[in-house]
Specification:
The chain is mainly alpha-helical. It contains eight helices and two strands, in the order αααββααααα. It has a domain of 100 residues: Arc Repressor Mutant, subunit A (Orthogonal Bundle), CATH 1.10.10.10. 49% of the residues lie in helices and 5% in strands. A two-stranded antiparallel ribbon has the order 1-2. A hairpin with a 5-residue loop joins β1 and β2. α1 packs across α2.
Length: 176
């Protein structure tokens, strides 16, 4: 299996979409800005995702894309296959026409190794849902290292932050 930029970008864009779809259709321009992926490239990817019924488009003002299925029902393998990424690491592309020294069965010496690796990768990617990746991303965003949106904090928290507490604060000098 080759995981190329196309597959990685498709998975990244789908996570972005799934994280934001509760707020309505998600625009490709927004995904492009947030993920730094070319808009024209996203248009190509989402055309393929739409044809595979992973996303659906909403036309008109306020339009964009929504998931066509629940995030739990979409796997990473579905996304990668939809954007035409071959899930194959064998030299022959799974056709058994390996190049180089061939064994009596017509395969190269490492064909079974790569074939088994393909099978394991497909099984793994088929076991990871888009919802799993969304949950993982939300858990990361909830960690202390991530900046919080202070607009949602209570006025008491804002007031507590407004009073400087540092030793070199002008307010501390005036109060002593």
């Amino acid at each position: 299996m080759r995981l190329t930029t196309k597959g990685r970008f498709a998975v990244t864009a789908m996570i972005d979409l799934a994280l934001r779809q509760e707020q309505g259709p998600v625009t490709l321009a927004g995904i492009s800005q947030r993920q730094r992926i070319s808009l024209s490239y996203l248009e190509q990817l989402f055309g393929k995702l739409r044809r595979h019924e992973i996303v659906e488009s909403v036309r008109g003002p306020g339009g964009g894309y929504n998931l066509a299925r629940r995030a739990q029902e979409v796997t990473v393998a579905d996304i990668i296959i939809a954007v035409d990424e071959p899930l194959d690491a064998t030299q022959c592309g799974g056709k058994g026409s390996c190049e180089g020294t061939k064994q009596h069965d017509g395969h190269c010496m490492t064909h079974e190794l790569w074939s088994t690796l393909n099978q394991k990768m497909v099984e793994y990617l088929d076991s990871v849902s888009l919802q799993d990746l969304v949950d993982q991303q939300r858990a990361r965003e909830g960690s202390p290292a991530v900046l919080r949106d202070r607009r949602t904090e209570s006025p008491a928290v804002e007031a507590a932050r407004a009073v400087p507490k540092g030793p070199n604060s002008v307010f501390n000098i005036a109060s002593s």
